[in-house]
Amino acid sequence: MGAIRLDLIRRYLRPHRKVVLIGVAALVVVNLLSVSIPLLVRRVIDDLQDGFALQDVLAQAALIVALATVMGAVRLYSRMLVFGVGRQVEAELKQQIFDHLLKQEPGWVQTTGSGEVISRATSDVENVRRLLGFAVLSLTNTVLAYALTLPAMLSIDGWLTLAAVGLYPLMLMVVRLFGGRMMRQQRRQQEALASLSDLIQEDLSGISAIKIYGQESTEQTAFAGRNRIYRDAALNLARTRSTLFPLLEGISSISLLLLLALGSGQLESGRLSIGDLVALILFVERLVFPTALLGFTLNTFQTGQVSLERVEELLRRRPLIVSSASPTPPAKPGRGAVEARGLTVRYPNAPRPALVDVSFELHPGELVAVVGPVGCGKTTLARALGRMVELDPGQLWLDGVDITALDLAELRGQVGLVPQEGYLFTASLADNLRYGEPDAPFERVEAAARQARLEGDIKGFPDGYQTLVGERGITLSGGQRQRTALGRALLVRTPLLVLDDALASVDNTTAAEILRTIRSEQANAQSNDQGLGRTVLMISHQLSAAAACDRVLVLEEGRLVQQGHHSELVAERGTYRRLWDREQATEQLRAAG
Ligand SMILES: Nc1ncnc2c1ncn2[C@@H]1O[C@H](COP(=O)(O)OP(=O)(O)OP(=O)(O)O)[C@@H](O)[C@H]1O
């Protein structure tokens, strides 16, 4: 058995120490009462040898019943207190883990696997609850039972006591022998369960891909493999448990038999009264349960320990992307001016950087496109602007402030990032649109929907803006989903808007209308003297969309290889011209065929 992390257990229990202490005090009372009852029974039985007095017997019996009732009530109270602490710690820990998960960068959750994270946040936390509730209660109870019962037994007969409990160390040896194995098996079972949950989650998210490629049977085989591993792990653990506990029961029964056999001899020789023997039997019986329970308790301790460490490991994980300790306030009002100087981004464990030495400027109110072959780093650039990937300081500035020096919440209030796959929460369409500003009035929700060309679609939905969307709501088309994500970003008036291929599923006419709206909004802001209008960086696979922008940045293999207006770039030899020629050829083929 690994070293018990008492420091961790103490730390978790510290905020509840008053309740735990009252619970333990109640257990002391329970055990004192529990020791006094066999002693009372002994007196009654021995008094009976001297003659039967109904009044006395009834009085003693009433006392025993009263004591047993009080004992039961106090035991119930102590259980409620200590189990309550376990539940309380469980609730606090779940909240702490959830808060902690929200602080992590998205890349970590993706690489760790959500099944693994969910398993730690649920089943591991439950094991911790059992450790702090059941295990602490029963271990304290066992210690108290021994501490109070053994002296009482020894005062009756030392040798008989030794004979009765002499086999109990053997019981502990058996527990120790099986303990390490059970701990390893428990860990394997938890890992297998996490891997099974990962697969279910992944397959549910990728169900369309599975169907399109007809890979149901491959996935079934993969599931069967992981399911088998989980089943075997669970069976191994069950096998160890089911060998251990009958062994413990057997040993305690032998103890009782030994006491009866040796005790009756002592009775005959007159060295022991009947009351003494009955009391000893009652005492040994009292110890059977806490000792047998010790097996369960140690088991719970072991699994709880494993889980406690897994939970601690999760809570120790420091997010890579954090606000600066003394953040610089953003420029107010924000103008959306961006400067990148030698921007280099490398994902953790990636063999080479996704962006290398990229330098450019975005002027306030500009509409700039980013194009380039697949995997050239376009999305990474979008993520860098929203600081969704870790950056070294001194590479990227927003309105003259290094973005790593900005408070994260402030930064995200300045940069609207619209990903290609807009996520919809299970909520009304209106609430999805106002997700970034939950208190935004309905007029702004309508305006955002109008700008994102979503209004017409909403009219066709059963409950209009109140239609439930997301996982449990109606299914939106890819284009509707994208336009909702765009509307959500447009509602929050960030000075910089980054569209990461956010119009890819929107038809060309609608995409052009949306761009025109953004353009006229920029122009209005400039002519109304409301500043220069928001700056827009638009990542696109379609060069025809880039042609309508003020400027185009061309990336290739993580480097900025060209920049300029579309008309300049098509006139140059280079990546842009190559991509443009290819797009034109594809268009012509499509028109011809
Ligand atoms: N989370 C990640 N961890 C490690 N490497 C990554 C991660 N995301 C992207 N990459 C790698 O970084 C490089 C740039 O990827 P990025 O997604 O920025 O390209 P992109 O130009 O947006 O591609 P596409 O046109 O396909 O959308 C690629 O080599 C990619 O494999």
TrEMBL record:
Q: Per UniProt, what is the membrane topology? A: Multi-pass membrane protein
Q: Which Pfam families match?
A: ABC_membrane, ABC_tran
**Domain (ABC transporter) ranges:** 338-582
**Which SMART domains does the record match to this protein?**
AAA
Which domain of life does this protein belong to? Bacteria
Entry keywords, A to Z: ATP-binding, Cell membrane, Membrane, Nucleotide-binding, Transmembrane, Transmembrane helix, Transport
Q: Does the UniProt entry include the keyword Transport?
A: yes
Localization (cell): Cell membrane
Question: Domain ABC transmembrane type-1, which positions?
Answer: 21-303
**InterPro entries for the chain:** AAA+_ATPase, ABC1_TM_dom, ABC1_TM_sf, ABC_transporter-like_ATP-bd, P-loop_NTPase, Type_1_exporter
Where does it sit, as one GO cellular component term? plasma membrane
Q: Transmembrane residues, as ranges?
A: 20-45, 57-77, 131-153, 159-179, 244-265
Q: Which GO terms describe its molecular function?
A: ABC-type oligopeptide transporter activity; ATP binding; ATP hydrolysis activity
Task: Name the PROSITE patterns on file.
Answer: ABC_TM1F, ABC_TRANSPORTER_2
Q: What's this protein's name?
A: ABC transporter ATP-binding protein
Q: Which organism is it from?
A: Cyanobium usitatum str. Tous
